[in-house]
Amino acid sequence: MKKALTIAGSDSSGGAGIQADLKTFSAHGIFGMSVITAVTAQNTQGVFAVQDISREMIAAQIKAIFEDIEVDGLKIGMVSQISSIEVIAESLKNYSPQNVVLDPVMVSKSGYHLLNPEAEETLIRKLLPLATVVTPNIPEAEVMTKMSIRNLPQMEAAAKIIRQMGAKNVLLKGGHLEDDSIDILYNGQGFEYYASKRIVTKNTHGTGCTLSSAITSNLALGYSLDEAVSRAKEYISAAIEHSLEIGKGVGPTHHFY
Ligand code: PLP
């Protein structure tokens, strides 16, 4: 059985973060493992409190897994603060993981800063070079490039800049564009384009986490990056189409239907 690890934050309401990642791994027939970087108290209406896990405990979790179990795919999600990023980068150097998907989580849909803004530069400098692919949405790409992104040519320019920052491939997600939603993948040579029809629902909590862990799953299963992204796009579209009316706010995507 293939094995995948998520290094990310816990979402108490089960829609995003570690919980979404583990559900996604399971739905792909993959054995899921987790290194928790922060615990959030949140539900479908917002994030109410965050407690960071100590750098010693993050390092101990990473060591415990890599010293014992082969990791076929690794996803990095919410990393919260500078010291967490530093210890993740230092710890992973010992193990040279393959198939690393970096979701540069910054702000939740409800507006909570899941990454301390002071840590943005450290995330770029320390984690991008580890990434097989980095998966920013437009607001995250705007933070990374300090440019405004409103259309496809600007997305292409931003993807080139982000790749120069060290990631091997860049999947820039266009869901925040006003018109068509299109994602682009840049590998340093050319672009792949992934168009998808917009699904009308308010229940989109955890979509970014789910997409990145679906890409991780498909890489762990041995698909090429292009195939892994295509399959993950199909997976997230279905998960949104079947999203759940749970809670009073933004409900979660659904993995088993
Ligand atoms: N909570 C955690 C722990 C996350 O990792 C994320 C996203 O990556 C979120 C919440 C945000 O979820 P959303 O913005 O989809 O509501």
Can you characterise this structure?
By secondary structure, the protein is of the alpha/beta class. The protein contains 8 helices and 9 strands. The chain has helices spanning 17-27, 55-66, 82-93, 120-127, 138-145, 152-164, 207-220, 225-241, and strands at 3-11, 31-43, 46-52, 73-76, 100-102, 133-134, 169-172, 181-186, 191-196. Helix 2 (55-66) runs parallel beside helix 3 and helix 7 packs across helix 8. It is globular and about 45 Å long. The two termini are 23 Å apart. The model has no long low-confidence stretch (mean pLDDT 96). The site of pyridoxal-5'-phosphate has 18 residues, from strand 1, strand 2 and helix 7.
Number of strands: 9
Small-molecule binders here are: pyridoxal-5'-phosphate
SSE topology string? EHEEHEHEHEHHEEEHH
Q: What is the third-level CATH name, the topology? A: UDP-N-acetylmuramoyl-L-alanine:D-glutamate ligase
Strand content: 15-25%
Strand numbers in spatial order across the main sheet: 3-2-1-4-5-6-7-8-9
Low-confidence stretches: none
CATH architecture descriptor: 3-Layer(aba) Sandwich
Tally of helical segments: 8
What structural category characterises the helix and strand content?
Answer: alpha/beta
**How would a textbook summarize the main sheet?**
9 strands, mixed
CATH class: Alpha Beta
Q: What would you give as the CATH superfamily? A: Ribokinase
Mean of all residue-level pLDDT scores: 96
InterPro entries: HMP/HMP-P_kinase_dom, PM/HMP-P_kinase-1, Ribokinase-like
Organism: Desulfosporosinus acididurans
Family: Belongs to the ThiD family.
GO biological process, one term: thiamine biosynthetic process
